Amino acid sequence: MIKPILGVSKCLEFDNCRYDGKLIGNDFVRRLKDHVDFVPVCPEVGIGLGSPRQPIRLVKINKEKNLYQPSTDENLTQKMKDFSKKFLEEHGVLDGFILKHSSPTCGVRNVKLYHKIGKAVGYDQTMGIFTELVIKKFPTIVVEDEARLRNPVLRDSFLTRLYTMTRLRESLTSKDFLLDFCKNNEMLFLCYDHAGPKRLIELLSSYSQKDFEQKFTALVFEILNKIPDSDSLYRTYAYIFSLLKDKLTVVEKDYFDVIQRDFSQSLVLPSQISTLLYSWALRFDIKSIISQTIFEPYPKKLVQEYSKNRDYSLLKL
Ligand code: SF4
Predict the structure, then answer these.
(1) Each residue of 237-257: pLDDT tens digit?
(2) Which of 67, 105, 112, 131 for a ligand 1 pocket mutation test, highest count of atoms within 8 Å of Cβ?
(3) Is this prediction's pTM over 0.85?
(4) Pocket lined around ligand 1, Cβ cut-off 6 Å
(5) What DSSP string runs through 244-270?
(6) How far apart are CA 153 and CA 174, in angstroms?
(7) Which of 57, 31, 65 has the alpha carbon at shortest distance from 119?
(8) For 116-120, which contacts have Cβ atoms below 8 Å and span 24 or more sequence positions?
């Protein structure tokens, strides 16, 4: 299995580098340690602020976003820009980033941007200054904050995008690898964009052009940059079924109709249909279906586990 190169805010599981001198434990980051190559970074410590340290905030100065420390009246913007540039140059490949939510440096969204220096001045919402520079340097990087990753749908989307973009990075070395990439991800892409696989194959014909790599990566990123809706999933499962149905018995076909109807009424999970289709593909050894990443877009061990540590004991009467 491939290993994505994943940046992470260092205060999540790696170091006591927060403004209050603490580390934030995070189960998901801990679980990822065996499956990705982490690149931990604390930009605030990187620019020489110690830990613990006095708070900093984002403030509009001359209509520009600035990183400012009220207790010292120091404008840290240039230092942060210099640090970020150096860090991003040193780490030329990053497939994704997990960032600490609401931080003026690492936050992805909903970070306070104060209207001016001073107290009780009001604020807008923005992105952390380091995160903004990361995205500017790597426009197709897969980014989330640790708070949103508690949501199972967003976590599944993050992992699917992260591992697919990593598979893409490793396939860019030849046209044949890219063709395999398109074939093996065809059904996954169909869940996101019905025209996606066709658009990618069309673009592949311009493989030898100078900016091909950039355009192809941007298109894959664009296709995946949404949450698939249930209609698209329904259509994709129906398509996979159409490739199998001639081999199935009448009873099996009828059963699939029932499962499909239940799915359209949200009575069964996508994973239940997917497992059924995969088991039929295995039985008939249909390699073009078995090889599809839709059945395991990222390592199974990263699927949210039924927590072994929780107390599920029932009340004893
Ligand atoms: S949020 Fe970012 S800058 Fe703040 S402590 Fe964590 S890693 Fe450092």
Answers:
(1) 999 999 999 999 999 999 999
(2) 105
(3) yes
(4) 9-11, 17-18, 42-44, 100, 103, 105-106
(5) HGGGS-HHHHHHHHHHHHHHHTT-S-H
(6) 33
(7) 57
(8) 116/59, 116/60, 116/61, 117/59, 117/61, 117/68, 117/70
